[in-house]
Specification:
single chain, alpha/beta, Rossmann fold, Arc Repressor Mutant, subunit A, 5-stranded parallel β-sheet, binds calcium ion
Length: 237
């Protein structure tokens, strides 16, 4: 589907999960995506794999017997390794989430999760690595400098509000994939959807962003998928 995807099929993923059935199904599912997948059942096992081999991404369960996911993560970062880490956890409180991210996790997924979302997030993290952690994100003639927080379309600057930059960066990181309102609500607005829905706010923001990015006869990059969410991609995709 996405021919511009820079991710090589041979990206190496380490799945750390103590629950045997979950571990096996994650391994199988991620292998079907074309990735090379190793597994570890304990924190100690994970550490010995990570000390000895290069991985492109670690899918790391937080609750593990012995050394837990947080300790594995801290070990990895103390050794100066920047391997992206996607934490899996049954913990849902904001404090726990903050603790995970502050310890150096790159993303966070609460159990139970949809496998498709794990794949989407894994792709996004691998893409970040594949683009050298650089601060230029591109899709067709659209370019976003995430450091200068400046967007250009066909060489012309697009004036964006800070929130619009956040949304555009998110859409670009997940380009070619559907981004749900729930994802935006959680990751951009940092809100749990349980209290009040931000659907209308999000729709209005996207509408404004689209007008700026896709207006004036430029090709349509931001698409709406009814009942699902939004997707940023080149027209042909
Ligand atoms: Ca566990």
């Amino acid at each position: 589907m996405n021919t511009t995807n820079p991710i090589t099929p041979a990206s190496r993923i380490l799945v750390v999960e103590d629950e045997a059935k979950t571990r096996a199904s994650l391994q199988e599912g991620l292998q079907l995506e074309g990735w090379s997948v190793k597994t570890a059942a304990t924190g100690d096992e994970a550490i010995s794999v990570l000390d000895g081999e290069i991985c492109d991404l670690v899918v790391l369960d937080w609750m593990l017997p012995g050394r837990d996911g947080l300790e594995v993560l801290m070990h990895l970062r103390q050794r100066g390794k920047q391997t992206p880490v996607l934490m899996l956890t049954a913990r849902e409180s904001v404090d726990d989430r903050v603790a995970g991210l502050e310890s150096g996790a790159d993303d966070y997924l609460a159990k139970p999760f949809a496998f498709a979302e794990l794949v989407a997030r894994s792709r996004a993290l691998l893409r970040r690595v594949a683009t050298g952690g650089g601060h230029l994100l591109r899709c067709g003639d659209l370019q976003l400098d995430t450091k200068a927080r400046m967007a250009m379309r066909a060489g012309r600057q697009i004036p964006l509000t800070p929130r619009e930059v956040d949304i555009l960066e998110y859409l670009l990181r997940y380009q070619g994939q559907i981004v749900t309102r729930e994802m935006l609500e959680r990751d951009i607005w940092k809100q749990s959807s349980r209290f009040s829905s931000l659907d209308n706010v999000i729709d209005v923001q996207i509408m404004r962003l689209r007008r700026k990015v896709d207006g004036e006869g430029a090709g349509k990059l931001i698409q709406t998928h009814r009942g699902q969410g939004y997707r940023l991609a080149k027209e042909a995709e």
